[in-house]
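Reagents: none. Just compute today. Lipoprotein.
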Amino acid sequence: MKYLLAFLVFSAGLAGCGPVVDTIDTSTSGSGGAGGSGGAGGSSGVGGLGAGPSALCKPLTNPSGPAQPLCGLEAPCQVLEEELLSVPPAYRNDAPALSLDASCHPRILFSSATGEYKGFYAVRKAVGDWKVIPTPFDSATAGLVSIVPDLPVALVNDGAFGASLWSFTTEGWSLVGDVPEEGTHLARGFALGKTGELFAGFRGPGDELLLGRYGSSSWSIETLGGTPFPFPVVVSPEGAPHLIAWEAVNGAWELHWQTPPHAREVVMPLGAGTLQADAYRLVLGTTAADDANPQGKPHILALRQLSDFTFELVYATREGKDTWTVMPLEKVPEDSTVYPLGIVTNEAGAVRLFYSRVKFASPTAGQLVVAAPVPSGPKQAVVTEGFSPFGATFDRDGVGRIHVALYEFNTTSDIGIRYLVLGP
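Predicted 3D structure written out:
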């Protein structure tokens, strides 16, 4: 029997730090979509994975010229493209997974359920031209990367601590292999390394913190500690995996950062008691190494609970060994919540923090917000509004545009899927 995962609401107490099991049922009637050609070309199978990531994609409409600076500071973020996927709304967990092909056409992997989880794969060939096909695997959550532009690879969680690796070619989905350990993961818990190695962060059934590495056609799984929830993983420009996770130590919660095999560090303490639902959401990014961060400089977006049991959104970054700067961005109003969504960086070291403001009583009043951390304090701006995102994945293309796939609350409890392209 599968345990239905619902990454929307949970509460993990310190007493024993027991497993987090979802309690929200999900339902949908299937998936449709606009016409268009589906699939991507490329060789079948992943095998030893081969080379590392290819150069960033270039859209056919702008194939040459230097990349523009990231929007959100000197140049406001404009919505260049925006589409709602034509699929029936349903309960959905975490975030859709996003990758881009060589011409920057998006592929989105998402899930829904009618008592069990089902996966769907959406390919966009042109504006308004999507094809959505069911996947042959059950999917509660999934991560998606591209080994080369035309070879998407998915890490899929079946909702019962079972994970498997799949590749997609013109023939469709092919099973690469099962993960040898039980675990659950997030869309942002799957990353492609500098030399083609895959990294994944799992929470095991006993709350183990697991880091998986896939290369040379096999997995290696390392146990790092205990955590109540799956966690994000990113790879720095230097090729080092970075991860952050909650940990209960001596009766109190702490947010930890680590680049294995180096020792973990405390980013910030959260205190004793219960890890509230709003606090578990974490977003991680990296920029290139500096003197204080030889493995790459980490950037974190998270919610922390205050002494009066309210929450505030904070940005944290590492200034040296066991030295972290934590910058408050905004306090969460009592009638609303804030969801960290993603961090986008570039080779110049720019950092953009994306999050949403959500009013559950009025989802159409929600906002997508971008912030830029600068020495004088954070600069924030509303990118767009009229919907309430709660989970998203981001990708950057070769001309500096930012691609976003997100889940959004609707006026009912169902959840829709939106695709955006942002730029200056």
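Confidence is low (pLDDT under 50) at residues 1-48.
Action item: order primers for follow-up constructs.
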